[in-house]
Amino acid sequence: MKTLASLSKAQLTDMEKKLSDQYNDFKSRNITLDMSRGKPSGDQLNLSNGILTAPLENYITEQGIDARNYGILDGIDEVKRLFSDLLDIPCYNMIIGGNSSLNLIYDAMARLYMFGSLGSTPWGKLDKVKILCPVPGYDRHFAICEEFGFEMVCVPLKKDGPDMDMVESMVKDPAVKGIMCVPLYSNPDGTCYSDETVMRLAAMETAAPDFKIFWDNAYGVHHVFKQVSLMNIFDACRQFHTKDRILYFFSTSKITFPGSGVALVAAGDEYIREIKRHFGRQTIGYDKINQLRVYNFFKDVDGMLSHMAALAKELRPKFNIVLETLNQEFEDSDMLQWKKPLGGYFVSVNTMHGCAKETVRLAKEAGLSLTNAGATYPYGKDPDDSNIRIAPSYPTCDELEQAMELFCICVKLASVRKALEYK
Amino acid sequence: MKTLASLSKAQLTDMEKKLSDQYNDFKSRNITLDMSRGKPSGDQLNLSNGILTAPLENYITEQGIDARNYGILDGIDEVKRLFSDLLDIPCYNMIIGGNSSLNLIYDAMARLYMFGSLGSTPWGKLDKVKILCPVPGYDRHFAICEEFGFEMVCVPLKKDGPDMDMVESMVKDPAVKGIMCVPLYSNPDGTCYSDETVMRLAAMETAAPDFKIFWDNAYGVHHVFKQVSLMNIFDACRQFHTKDRILYFFSTSKITFPGSGVALVAAGDEYIREIKRHFGRQTIGYDKINQLRVYNFFKDVDGMLSHMAALAKELRPKFNIVLETLNQEFEDSDMLQWKKPLGGYFVSVNTMHGCAKETVRLAKEAGLSLTNAGATYPYGKDPDDSNIRIAPSYPTCDELEQAMELFCICVKLASVRKALEYK
Questions:
Q1: C-alpha of A345 from chain center
Q2: Which candidate, B372, B147, B369, B36, places its Cα nearest to that of A280?
Q3: Looking at residue B423, what is its pLDDT?
Q4: Within its chain, how far is the Cα of B25 from the centroid?
Q5: For chain B, first and last CA: distance in Å?
Q6: What is the CB-side half-sphere exposure of residue B126 using CA atoms within 13 A?
Q7: Which pTM was predicted?
Q8: Are the Cβ atoms of A287 and B286 closer than 8 angstroms?
Q9: Tell me, what's the ipTM?
Q10: Which residues, 6 or more positions from A306, have their beta carbon under 8 angstroms from its beta carbon?
Q11: Which of B263, B270, B335, B409 could share a disulfide with B101, CB 3.0–4.6 Å?
Q12: Domain at B61-299: CATH architecture
C-alpha cells in the first residue's frame, strides 16, 4: 500500500497540482449531481406505477369494511397479513400507521417522553435520558433524539452490529433508556446484525425496566447482492421475557413510493395494547384506501419479494459503479476505507482523519451534493471527520460514473492537502 | 305545551304502558341501526369515487417535483392553493399534513406539552393547564385534552358561540391555556360563531402569553340548508396582533373519504415557522400522491363547492327526516328541546334532565346505537344528563325513519318513567 505519509513533500506537491487541475477541469463543466439522500431513482419508482394507475374498484376489505369510511384503527387485515408473513410478526402485535415509519419512531419517542411505558416514569420527567446510538448511523434518528433532549451516546458498529460488550456495560446505567438500531443493511454502513447480536440485545439485563430497542428495519427486504437473514427479535426476546422492550418499525417507503407507502410499528403484547390506547386518542384511523392500494399491488409476500428483486436489479449496477470505482482508485491506498454492503441503500466510506468535511466541501463546490460530513454521527460531529455516506440510488448510471470520478478526485485532493500540512 | 309534570299519575302510568308496548314491539323486530358517529353514507362516499378510479398519470407537481419521491414537507403547491382559496389563509401559514386533522390537533397539543411555543414553558412542565371547552362539544377533542392531563373547563355554547363574557373572564387565569372551537356548524349543536364572537376571541387579553385557540373548522364548507359565513380568524387576530394564538385545522375527511383525505394545520407567521421545524424532525413529508389525487378531483374551489352542494343534497333529506319527526313528536312537549342546524353533521337534542342516558340505553337495547349520552361533555359527564347527539348521515332514509321513530319512543318512555318517579 502506498501511504501518503511515505511520500515526500515534492511528490505530494506534484500530486496536489495534478489533482487540482483535474478538479478545476471538473468544476468548469458546471455539473449538478446529487448523491446526498437515499432517494430512489425514477426508474425504480416506475416499477411501482401500477399503484398509481390501477383503479380501485373494490373498496370493501376482507373484513367487510368499507375502506372509504371511518373505522379500523390499526390497519386492514390484508396488509397486516402481508407484513406478518413478510416479517414473521403476529398481526396482533402490529399497528399499520400512516405513510412514514420515521413519524412512527418520533411518535413512539414522544409517547415515552410524555407517558412513559407500562407504568414507568415519563422520560420527559427524568433529569437525564441517554440513548445508545451505534455509529455511523442515520441522521434522522439522531435528530429525533435531539428534539427530545435525549443524550446520545455513541457505540461503534462492528461488523456484526453494535459493540455488544460496550452496550451490555452501558445499559447498567439506569439513565440509558434505549438504543437506535437499523439491524439489516444499516444506514450508512450496510452492517447486518448477527444472530448473536440480536440474542444479546434480547437477553441483556438493563438497569432501566423501560429500556427500548428502536428496531428500524428500514431495509429488511432490500437485498441487493445477497439475502442476509436477520434473526427475529420477537423470537429472541420471547426467550428472555423481554418482548416489551421492542419497538419495531418497517415501511414500504423504499419499496414503493417514499412518503406514499404504509408504515408499521410493532411491539410486545402488553406494550402494543398501551400504544393502541394512545393511538385511539391520536387518530380515528390511518388511510385504509392507501393500505388497500399497496396490498392490491403486492397481494402476498411473493409479490413483494419479486418486486424487491426487480428493485435490486436496478440498484446493483449503481452499487457496482461505486464499488468498482473505489476499488480502482483506492485499492492500494490509505486515503479511503470502505466495506462492500450486501444490501440497503448506501456505501459508507472513511477518509483519512480530518478529510471528510473538506471532501464534501470540494465536491459541493464542483456541483456534487453529498450527505454532509458528520451527519452520520450524533450532533453532526464525527470525531474523526472521516465518514461519508454515498447514496448511489438516485442518479442515473451515467451521472453516477461522473459523480464517482469527481468524488475520488475530491477525496484525493483533500487527503493530499492534509498530508502536505504535516510536511 | 303539555308538560309531563302537569299530568296525573294515572295518566302517566297509562302513557308508560302504551309506550312500553310500542317499544317492545320495536324490540321484537330485531333491527340494527347506527346513528352513533358522524359517518357519511355509502351514497355520499360514491360521490367521491372518481378519486379511486382515476389513474394518476401525471405525478409531477406544478413545482416540478416528482410526487412519488421524497421531498416537500409542508404540502404541494396545488393543494395549498386550493385550501388557501377556499379558506382565505395564506399558503405560507399552512402545512398540509396527513390524513387526519384530529391527528394534527393531537400533535399540536403534544408539541405544546413537550416544547411550549415561541419560548414559553412546555405545558407538560406546568402544575396545571386548563383548556376551555364549549359544551356540548366533540368527544374526541375532550379525549385529547384528557390524554395530556389538561383540566377541561366547560363553557356554555350560546347561539352565536361560546359564552364570551365567561371566556374573557376565565382567560385572566394564567393556567387557562387554550380553547377548543368548532366555529361553524359545531359538533354537535350546529352553532355558528358570530363575527362578534370571533372578534372577541381575537381581541381578548389572555393572562397566558401562549394561549391557543384550537380552531377546528371541520365543517367549514358543510352548508346543508344555508351558507353561513364565518369571519376569518386570521384577519381578526391580525388587527390585535394575536395571530400566534391561532391553531387552525381543516380536512377533507367529511368532504371525500374519512381518513383518506388530506388535513391541514395553519398558524400565524412566527408560530408556523416553529411548527415546521418540529415537523421537519417528525417526518420527511406527507403523502403527496394522495394530495395530488385530491387536488385532481377538485381542481379548484368551484369544483369543491359544487361537490359540497351534491353532498348537501344527500344530507338534506336526512336532516329533514330527523327535524320533521322531532317536530311532529315533540313540538308542543317539554320532553325534548333542539335547534335546527343550518349545516354540519349533527342534530343535538336535550331531553328532560336525567333522561339522556336512559334514552340511549333503551335505544341500544332495541337495536339503535346512539352516541353515548354524556359524550358531548368533558369526562363524559353531562351535568344535566340531557344532551344526545343524533348523527343522521350514515343510515339510509328508510333506516333513519325507523331509527327516529324508535328514538322518539325511547325519549318519551324515559321521560314518562322519570316523571313517574316524582309522583
A1: 8
A2: B147
A3: 84
A4: 35
A5: 20
A6: 22
A7: 0.97
A8: no
A9: 0.96
A10: none
A11: B263
A12: 3-Layer(aba) Sandwich (3.40)
